[in-house]
Amino acid sequence: MIIAEAGIKPGETVLDIASGTGNPAVSIALAMEGAGSVTCTDLTPRMLEAARKRAENLELSVMRFVGADMAALPFAENTFDCATCRFGLMFPGDKVAAVGEARRVLKPGGRAAYLVWGAYGENPAFHVPRRAAAAFFGEAEGPVADRHSMGAPGTLAAILDGAGFERTEERELRYKRRVEDPDNYVTARLKRGLAKRVEGMAPVEFDAIKKAVMDAWAPFFEDGILFVPNYARLGIGWKPA
């Protein structure tokens, strides 16, 4: 979706910010057809190492890796054709300044594309297991995570405008993720999201909370297959030519 919406083409120089383990940088590199470059950046070296290994396995010679803070990018002005950032803009405190850094390193007329999560209540991937687990433990659900802090329409466009981008656009992206193995999906998310709570649980107790979460997913099955709806917002802006 980012590749299509940002109009990324083979031969361009692309900067991917907060790449993590390589999404969407690896997909962008595959679409480059061996021409151009994709520079992956992340504040966490361990994440970048995972991205590097993926690139090596896929023999993606167009990929580069640089440890960097998105609020202080180590690149010269007017370097890249396009900058992308998937679910990373929630991290910096001064989001306008961070987006301004992307604008600085873009070439005149270059564009940036930021993907952020939409509203919490419209993202079952987060609220379904969280609410089911809270009910299981007899606890309140708790506050909404910061990842959804930019979910209100217009928030992302305002950040891009504030950073000096032109022709800013904000679009909603809705899609369904097909889950091939629901049991493994629920198990993995419990062990990752509630690691401290489920570590050391007796098997019977873990099976009970897993069943509670699986039951909560029941309305999202279609012909026996789990489809998880996702809602994100995409902001695009152009650096003045």
Helix content: 25-40%
Radius of gyration: 20 Å
Structural class: alpha/beta
- CATH fold-level topology of the domain at 2-120 and 146-176 and 232-238: Rossmann fold
Largest sheet, in brief, is: 8 strands, mixed
Please provide the count of β strands.
Answer: 8
The overall pLDDT average reads 96
Give the DSSP E fraction (strand runs of 2 or more residues): 25-35%
Distance between the termini: 25 Å
Layout of strands and helices, then pairs:
Blueprint: H1 2-6, E1 13-17, H2 25-31, E2 37-42, H3 45-57, E3 63-67, E4 80-86, H4 95-105, E5 106-117, H5 124-137, H6 155-162, E6 166-179, H7 182-193, H8 195-198, H9 203-216, E7 221-222, E8 225-238
Parallel strand pairs: 1-2, 1-4, 2-3, 4-5
Antiparallel strand pairs: 5-8, 6-8, 7-8
Helix pairs in contact: 5-9
Structural account:
By secondary structure, the chain is of the alpha/beta class. The protein has a domain at 2-120 and 146-176 and 232-238: Rossmann fold (3-Layer(aba) Sandwich). 37% of the residues lie in helices and 27% in strands. It contains nine helices and eight strands. The chain has helices spanning 2-6, 25-31, 45-57, 95-105, 124-137, 155-162, 182-193, 195-198, 203-216, and strands spanning 13-17, 37-42, 63-67, 80-86, 106-117, 166-179, 221-222, 225-238. Strands 1, 2, 3, 4, 5, 6, 7 and 8 form an eight-stranded mixed sheet that branches. Helix 5 (124-137) crosses helix 9 (203-216). The two termini are 25 Å apart.
Short description:
This protein is about 35% helix and about 25% strand. The chain is α/β, with parallel strands linked by helices and about 240 residues long. The chain has a domain at about 1-120 and about 145-175 and about 230-240: Vaccinia Virus protein VP39 (Rossmann fold).
